[in-house]
Each structure stands twice: as structure tokens, then as C-alpha cells.
Amino acid sequence: MSNTIEISLRPTDGTLLDQHDVLLLDLDGVVYVGPDAVPHAAEALRGAVRAGRRLGFITNNASRPPETVAAHLRELDVPAADEDVVNSAQAAADHLAGRLPAGSPVLLVGTTGLRVALEDVGLRPTHERHEAVAVVQGFSPDLGWRDLAEATHAVRAGLPWIATNLDATVPTPGGPAPGNGLLVDLVARAAGRGPDVVCGKPERALFDAAVQRLGAQRALVVGDRLDTDLQGARTAGLAGLLVLTGVTGVRELLAAAPHERPTHVGHDLRSLADVHPGVAVVREQDTVSASCRGAEVTVDPHGLRVPGGEAGPDGLDVLRAAAVAVWAAADDGHALTGDDLTAGVRTVTDSLRRPG
Ligand SMILES: [Mg+2]
């Protein structure tokens, strides 16, 4: 018995940019990494704006206020107005403003961006645990043990605890480093309970706010993380482009769970101007075959093979076919694991190239 279906990775009519009016862009690992622009990002985004598209910058990183982020983007030649930046600190502050009287003192476990967001909605950030009526925790590179201890005491005392996001890592020029999720986890383990509310990606609040603010009809989420950007896109019912300039590589993409799979994959933001292919899948007993233009990949109990190795115009067609084949096999109860996954990742990685 065999059947052919289209799963995940969607074909576009024309370019990806042709199909969307607003781009909801993640920042770290998509537009910049630390202080530096991701190669080709600024040029691609200027092209999108010239073509009449609006840009929204959607970030879980609450350590800097939107004006600072927008100024940084403009320094990198990315067209950005202050109000185009929406972060999880704003979402957290909005949430607290909806449940506390104006002027309420909130224990601030975070940095400038979170402080400004609280002040903007009429709340009073404090470092005095004894006067606080709630705790808000966001990423800061300057958090110390004393801050985490104060947060723990407040959380143990039963104060409402809002986390801006649960990203496990933040990208840095030297590689991934501990993110807010791990710092929240330290407090949770010490206090014996988790946060009451999480505001950032993959929760949909941030996307909903951005869609509303930018008046989007057909928004495209662009991100480098499966467990925040792409899962959030699915949660919010939006198409999602994964770019390979951040924390997600071939291995992570192949191992993606159903709820975090992207609808499109590109090397970097230049792929906004590409026509994206779909992937066709055929399942026969314990073998899955997937084809993407001239690329063909099979996954069976012996592992992953590439009978058709045409990488296509952007060099990613083998990766696309492999991802969908591995996902379909996993969904059928034959996940590629261990040495088989490692060998498959090596085979697919060898196929990657981008002309120019
Ligand atoms: Mg990112």
C-alpha cells in the first residue's frame, strides 16, 4: 500500500515575499548575532521594504528597550522604527498592567528593557522584595546570585511570578550561552514551583500583538529557533520560515517535533526573494521517500539515503526532502535515532551549498 501526500514544507506561488505583507522577524540569529549583522540580512530587508512589505521585529530578549533595539538595527542599515520592535518585556508588562492597580511595585529581575516596559504601563519596578506585589523575570547578562535569591524568596512567599520567556539559550558570537529559561529554572528549582505566566514565544501573545500593531493580513514569521519562533508561528496560525543563520542546524531540523516544524527553510534572509518548492512524500510499508524538485531522499530501517542528489537553485533541496522524509518516518513510528541520525545528518550536510 502506498499513498502520496504533501506534508509541511509548502510550495510558494512566486517568491516568499510575493505571498506576505508583513514579516515578523526574530532578531538574534536572524538579523544580528550579538553586535554584528548576519551576512546579507540588511540588504534583504531593505529589498523587502522597497517591495512594499512591512517589517516587525519580534524578540523574546527583554534586556534592551525597543528604542535601543531599533537604533541598533538602523546602525546595521536595517530599516526599523522604534514602534516596529515588539518584545516579551512589553508583553509581560501589559499582562501585569491588566491585573495590578496603577503604581503597583513589581520586583524586577531583569534589566533596563524590562524596567522601561514596566514604567511605560504605569507600574513601579523595585528591587525591594518586601514591598513587591509581583515578580517579573527577564533576561539580563548582569543578573547575579543575589537577584536570583531575592526572586526565589518572593516566589516562595507566593507572589505572582511572570516570566518574559523561557529560551534556554541566547546566541552570542562565541556560541550559545545560558538564556532566561535556564535562569527561570534556577529560581523554580530553588522555590519549588514554576512561573505563573510566560509571555514570550512560543506563546502567541507576542505574535498577536505584532499582527495587530502592524495591521498584517498575511504575516510570515521568520526565525532561527524551532522551539520558540517556529512553534510560535504554528501556535499563532502563521507561516514560518526557518533560516539557518542561528541556533538550528541540520540535526535539529531533522529531529523537529510536529508542532515546531517550519513551513519554509532558507539559508538566510536572501531566501525571502526565492521561490520555495514543496516536498512530495510516498510511504510504503517501513520506507518513506520524499522528493523536492531534483532531490530524492529515502528513510528506511537501514537509515537515510539520497538516491537523487540535485540540491537545486539554493542548494537546500536535499535538506528539504530529508527533513520531510525523516519527519514522516518519525510520525509513522520509525524515528531516525542515534548513529543512523548522525550518519543522515552527515550525508545531508555534505549536500548543502549556496551558489554566490
Ligand atoms: Mg533567534
From TrEMBL:
What range(s) does the GCN5-related N-acetyltransferase-like domain occupy?
292-343
Coiled coil feature spans: none
Q: Does the keyword Hydrolase apply?
A: yes
InterPro entries registered for this protein in UniProt: GNAT-like (IPR041065), HAD-like_sf (IPR036412), HAD-SF_hydro_IA (IPR006439), HAD-SF_hydro_IIA (IPR006357), HAD_sf (IPR023214)
Q: Name one GO cellular component term.
A: cytoplasm
UniProt-recorded Gene Ontology molecular function terms: phosphatase activity
PANTHER family, from UniProt? 4-NITROPHENYLPHOSPHATASE-RELATED, D-GLYCEROL 3-PHOSPHATE PHOSPHATASE
By what name is this protein known? HAD superfamily hydrolase (TIGR01450 family)
Q: Which organism is it from?
A: Kineococcus aurantiacus
